[in-house]
Amino acid sequence: MKVYLSISLVLISLILLIPGVTKPMLTITGTIEKSQLVDTGKDMLIQDLTEDSRANTRGILDIAASMLGLGTLDGEVEVFRNSRSIIDTIAALYQSHHFVVAMLVGLFSIVIPAVKLITMLILLLPVTPLIKQRLSKMISVIGKWSMADVFVVAIIVTYMAGNASAGMGDMLKTQSQFEIGFYYFLGYCIFSIASQMMIDMTQTQKSQNASR
After folding, report:
1. According to the model, what pLDDT value does residue 55 have?
2. How far apart (Å, rounded) are the C-alpha atoms in residues 17 and 110?
3. What is the 3-state secondary structure (H, E, C) of the chain?
4. Which tops the pLDDT comparison, 68 or 93?
5. Which residues partner with 33 through β-bridges?
6. CA nearest neighbour of 22 among 87, 113, 92
7. pTM of the full structure
């Protein structure tokens, strides 16, 4: 019974992993105060002028903005919205020539979890004791990297937030929101831990029965 439950948990983990890395994980939106955007536009128009011309031109722009109702603007305007999955982040890192980081993110978020789950699934099937012993050692080695998934999410959040605020200074207000991919990936982590615990219990029980 425990074997079937363990197989079910591993299969659920595999199923959750796929959308966990392909669906959008995080959305970051950036907004700017409308009044601040108008002031920035004025500064950009006069930045190449001399000091005297700058003062005169700024006064003309203030009058024009007031006549157009731009001087009393309230609220914020959304300047960008960026949603990315783990796969999208790996591709963006690769395209921006962060090859090592892209490789590590792909390794720890896709390759190692997939290999671990497939190995656990094979371990639960009827195989020879020698194969089971080798698979158990392999799972034990891979298990040392189990917390790497958390660091992958942290890298993605940091990378997206850094790109969002680049070059915008204090003008930009960013807001982040977890998307469906994050919850799939979280579900994978939970079911993966549960399946690992169930397999350990099953292996321990089998060892105790064999020693009697």
Report:
1. 56
2. 8
3. CHHHHHHHHHHHHHHHHHHHHHCCCEEEEEEEEHHHHHHHHHHHHHCCCCHHHHHHHHHHHHHHHHHCCHHHCCCEEEEEEEEECHHHHHHHHHHCCCHHHHHHHHHHHHHHHHHHHHHHHHHHCCCCHHHHHHHHHHHHHHHCCCCHHHHHHHHHHHHHHHHHHCCCCCCCEEEEEECHHHHHHHHHHHHHHHHHHHHHHHHHHHHHHHHC
4. 93
5. 76
6. 87
7. 0.71
Tell me what pLDDT residue 23 has: 92
What's the rounded Cα separation, in Å, for the pair 77 and 37? 9
Neighbours of 139 (CB within 10 A): 19
Length of the chain: 212
At residue 85, what are phi and psi to the nearest 5 degrees? -95, 180
Instruction: For 76-125, write each residue's pLDDT tens digit.
Output: 667 777 788 889 888 888 898 888 888 888 888 888 888 888 888 888 88
Which residue, 206, 18, 202, is CA-closest to 117? 18
Whole-number pLDDT of residue 180: 93
Do 102 and 142 meet the contact criterion of CB atoms below 8 Å apart?
Answer: no
